[in-house]
Amino acid sequence: MQQDVQDLLAYVPSASALQGRVILVTGAAAGMGKAIATACAQYGATVVLLDKEMRRTEDTYDAIVNAGYPEPAIYPLDMQGATAKDYFDLTENIRAQLGRLDGLMLNAAWLGSFTPISHYDTELWSKMIMVNLHANFLLTHACLPLLQEAADPAIVFASHASKKAFYGAFGVAKAGMAAFCDILAAEHDDPAHFIRVNTVDTGPARTSMRTLNFPGENPNSVARPEALVAPYLYFLGADAGKRTGEHLVFARQPGDAHWVGEASAT
Q1: Quick check: is 263 in a domain?
Q2: Is S-adenosyl-L-methionine among this UniProt entry's keywords (predicted)?
Q3: Structural domain for 136, as ranges
Q4: Please, which residues bridge with residue 25 across strands?
Q5: H-helix or E-strand containing 140?
Q6: Which of 29, 36, 209, 224 could form a disulfide with 51 if both were Cys (CB 3.0 to 4.6 A apart)?
């Protein structure tokens, strides 16, 4: 049964909805990435935790293992400097060690500063386009052969409403990612090559990147990442069926928002 868009923040998968699936989550060390990775593991997935910050990625690993969920894998990678070969090696390692890839969660992002275009540092621009756009192409391109072997493959983009003044390279990259989603979805919307491709914008979350870039905001006024994971889980699992090419945008959630699926994790 197709879920109404407005209901997806309250979506709760069946206990084994992601059982046996392998899902790669970028930016898994903290924030939304950690919350999504942990929730995927909660519902049965083996999660590949990709990040450059090893100490915090190990914290995510420990949280998943200590909860009794399937043991995840850690893959250290700096998306700012990684090459096409690095991503190819990643997929070869996933194939060799885990044998499959069912989902790709493109969550990692970096907002260096709010700057008008006329004052933008060109080196900063290049780095931000690399992390927020080009690296996602390289990773996706490398993962496509593995995903196409899966019975129900999915790619989910964490998106942000960023076509605004002073968002600079971040805004351009996020607009590019939306176009990338449309292109991928159209190219894989047929029975022979189907991959479910969607973007999700759950509004602001209480993350370190948010706090850094909005220092005057009370962090407690922003929803915790754990309260916002449901739409990502929906599109990473079979309940989403053939829904593809969608760009879901949700209104800002209150600071005390709670996802009902969290109760089963406690």
Answers
A1: no
A2: no
A3: 5-257
A4: 49, 105
A5: helix 135-148
A6: 29
Give me the pLDDT at residue 204, please. Answer: 73
The neighbouring-strand residues paired with 105 are 25, 156
- Give me the mean pLDDT over the 70-84 stretch: 96
- SS (HEC) of 89-138: HHHHHHHHHHCCCCEEEECCCCCCCCCCHHHCCHHHHHHHHHHHHHHHHH
Tokens at residue 58, please? 């190990």
Percentage of the chain beyond pLDDT 90 is: 77
Reading the block at residue 174, the tokens are 């996020």
Reference 29, options 132, 108, 142; nearest CA is: 108
CA angle 26, 109, 207 (to 5 degrees): 95
The answer to whether residues 265 and 42 touch, using CB atoms and an 8 Å cutoff, is: yes
CATH code (residue 156): 3.40.50.720
Q: Is residue 77 part of a domain?
A: yes
